[in-house]
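Practice problem 4.
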């Protein structure tokens, strides 16, 4: 066990190297923006929606639909975090094209948060606070996780685009760090931080809401603050603290949505279109099985609807009707969706689809290969964590969330961005374990 001065020196060294890795990662992402994505002739896919919403916010017009000019219509096509982060880019520039480049640079900086908190989280997951709170192994694991977050194409490719995956990765990394901190020393403040981190995550990507039952509720029911008390009621204060943190962050957005639309809306209005676009003939047959099909949605869209919540209700009704009439197809279609999300079904088609969002072909292929390697190393890392008596399930919760999301809706690799963060943390444990064994194998003391 290190003395307090030694521990402070160790931690300061860890944070210094972690900061260096983060700075290098941000510089690399900025270089990718300046040499590749800023030269794209136009925005693609969801980038258009995020960028134009940010431009509307910069103009002081709030969250109104930027594509409807003749009247003011409330907009919540996506959760707000990505557009909010991009808004300063359009405040500080005098044209949409310059604003788009500046917004990409903001996303590159957000990618640095993913690197920083992945390193912090990995160090925490690797640390047995009861044995050695500042072990060299945990320090290496943190640096390795930060390094992986810096170089894995599946992570940095999103940070050169105006997309929600970049903020989504950063918020999941923050959530993992806050969750393992609570497990190591449960306090009301720490689980409130977990709830707040979850609130930020769902404001980035709505499927992060699945981590409420998969992560936050189990955290409360671990009851590690008082091992002698196993009553269910003992979890209620933890749940209340987590709920307070969540409401403080996500409550204003949810509350505003509940009052400004004709029909009830919580996080976004795109749940209906997502459900309908993934449950129609084209999404159940042929080469497009398991995907989202835009014409299936537009066929049921009413351009005279009061607002998006009215269309969303129609889309949900039609999507559920299709599901009920095709129950026998569900196992097959769900399996294809899940395989697509994990890059195990038609990788070539995945690369083509990624190009529709602005990703370069070579980057998409590199991301797929990197993802396969990270999955394999991450699986080994889960085993290594268990052998060290460290929690695995908070990381695994992200894999479950990605799988459930894709099975319920449709399959795309970017749906697993949270799982990618969790897997790179586990993969860092694998690499650190291998390095630990190698160093012991060549240690002269072990050869005597």
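Answer key:
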């Amino acid at each position: 066990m290190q003395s307090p001065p030694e521990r402070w020196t160790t931690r300061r060294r860890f944070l210094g190297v972690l900061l260096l890795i983060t700075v290098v990662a941000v510089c690399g992402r900025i270089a990718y923006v300046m040499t590749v994505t800023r030269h794209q002739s136009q925005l693609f896919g969801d980038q258009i929606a995020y960028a134009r919403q940010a431009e509307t916010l910069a103009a002081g017009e709030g969250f109104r639909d930027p594509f409807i000019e003749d009247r003011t219509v409330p907009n919540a096509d996506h959760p707000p975090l990505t557009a909010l982060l991009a808004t300063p880019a359009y405040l500080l520039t005098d044209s949409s094209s310059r604003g788009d480049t500046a917004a990409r640079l903001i996303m590159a900086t957000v990618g640095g948060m993913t690197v920083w908190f992945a390193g912090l989280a990995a160090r925490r997951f690797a640390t047995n606070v009861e044995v050695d709170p500042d072990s060299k192994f945990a320090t290496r694991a943190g640096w390795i996780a930060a390094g992986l977050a810096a170089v894995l194409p599946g992570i940095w490719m999103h940070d050169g685009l105006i997309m929600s995956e970049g903020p989504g990765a950063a918020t999941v990394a923050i959530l993992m760090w806050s969750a393992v901190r609570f497990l190591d020393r449960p306090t009301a403040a720490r689980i409130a931080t977990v709830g707040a981190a979850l609130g930020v995550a769902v404001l980035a990507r709505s499927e992060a809401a699945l981590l409420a039952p998969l992560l936050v509720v189990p955290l409360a029911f671990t009851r590690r603050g008082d091992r002698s008390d196993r009553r269910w009621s003992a979890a209620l204060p933890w749940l209340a603290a987590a709920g307070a943190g969540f409401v403080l962050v996500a409550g204003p957005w949810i509350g505003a949505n509940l009052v400004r639309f004709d029909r009830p809306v919580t996080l976004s209005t795109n749940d209906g279109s997502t459900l309908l676009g993934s449950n129609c003939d084209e999404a159940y047959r042929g080469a497009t099985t398991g995907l989202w099909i835009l014409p299936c949605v537009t066929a049921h869209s009413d351009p005279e609807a009061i607002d998006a919540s009215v269309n969303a209700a129609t889309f949900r009704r039609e999507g559920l009707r299709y599901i009920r009439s095709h129950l026998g197809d569900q196992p097959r279609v769900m399996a294809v969706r899940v395989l697509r999300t994990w890059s195990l079904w038609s990788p070539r088609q995945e690369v083509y689809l990624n190009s529709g969002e602005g990703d370069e072909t070579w980057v998409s292929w590199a991301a797929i290969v990197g993802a396969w390697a990270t999955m394999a190393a991450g699986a080994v890392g889960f085993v290594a964590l268990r052998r060290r008596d460290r929690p695995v399930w908070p990381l695994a919760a992200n894999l479950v969330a990605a799988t459930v999301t894709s099975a319920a809706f449709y399959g795309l690799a970017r749906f697993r961005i949270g799982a990618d963060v969790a897997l790179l943390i586990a993969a860092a444990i694998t690499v650190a374990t291998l390095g630990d064994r190698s160093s012991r194998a060549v240690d002269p003391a072990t050869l005597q």
